[in-house]
Structure formats: structure tokens, C-alpha cells
Amino acid sequence: MKTLTIKTPKHELLIDYYYGIVEKSEVAVDKVLFIQMCKDGCSNYGNKYSCPPYSPHFEDYLKNYSRLFIVAFTLELSQFNQTNYKEYLKIRIANSILKSRIEKLMRILEQNFDTKYLGTGACKLCRSCQLKIEKPCKYPSKRRYSLESLGVDCDDLMKQVFQKKLKWYRDEKAPEYTSVICALPIKNNQHQDTLESSFIAAIRKIF
Questions:
Q1: pTM surpassing 0.90?
Q2: DSSP category for residue 54
Q3: How many CB atoms neighbour CB 12 within 10 A?
Q4: Which residues of the chain fall below pLDDT 70?
Q5: Does residue 44 contact residue 128 with C-beta atoms inside 8 Å?
Q6: Among residues 83, 90, 102, which one has the least CA distance to residue 175?
């Protein structure tokens, strides 16, 4: 784990970042379970091409790859304690900051390794997905899927690779911290040193 500082128009914040490699075969996947969870609890289900039931299965999507380069960002929400933000707003602001930056980072990384990253949350390329009006995706080559949409248990992945748990907003109370996690599918011939140097260069470019 390493820490960096970011500045927004209203805040100067510390973000912890993590990275590591995991074998594809070691990733916990349950597509049926996560499709049902999306169906029960997310308005994007059936309304976005990036989401279930339209998202592919993990094994199908990664059939040409053997490993995943995992990246996670974490932000301690106590950094908002001096504000008058309500609890839900703390996590909303933090997630917006983390998601926008990790997506930029992953877009840079994937260009170096002939792959397409697995992001966090639904695709946001269009204000309203073309699926809603029964038209084809406008940007199929730019569309990215989330780990969850492929059936990956992100909480298990976070604990396995970084020994850290995902935390959630519950009972109108913000958690201690919030996290986002993404992955870059990679092949066996891509060396860890090359991945790490590209990652550090991308971090410096974004921050």
C-alpha cells in the first residue's frame, strides 16, 4: 500500500492505492448469484449493455488471459469530518473522486498491454444507454464491464490480494473508508516489473 495526495476544488485528500497480481483460476466467481443481486438491487439491471443480463461470463471474457493485475484505491472518510456533509454525501463524494481517477488510470494501462480493463460500476459513456430505446451501443469498442457484472466476488478479491475488506454504507452511517477495485487481464508473458513500471508512470500522469 502506498499513499498519494489529490486536490479537488474543495478538498485536499489522501488516497491509499494498492496493486498486485492474481491467477485467473484463483478468482471467486458466481455469475448466477451476482446476476440475481443486480436484478434485486440495481436499477441498471437490464437497462445497460454493460450490466447483467447482457454482460459476459468471467471465463468467456478472459479466455485469452491467465492472470489479472488488480488495482484498488481507498479513501478514509474521516477526512470529511471537518465538513458539514451528511453521511451519505461523504461516501458519494469519495466514490466519485475514486472512480473517476481509477477509470482514467485503467484506460492508460490497457493501451500498453493489448487488453480491456474491468472497471467499477456501470458504463457511463452515454447519459442514457441506447439499450433503453432498443438501439445498438454507440461505443462498443469503448464499453467496459465491471468485475461484478462478470460475476466476480470483489469483496473476496480485495481480501485475497490486499488483505483488506470492502466497506458499505449501512443504517445511514458512512463506513470507516470506501474503496474501488479494477482489474487488467494479462497474459503469462507480461512481466511483473513491466506492469509495475507502467502502473507507476500512469499514476504520476493522473495525479
A1: yes
A2: S
A3: 9
A4: none
A5: no
A6: 90
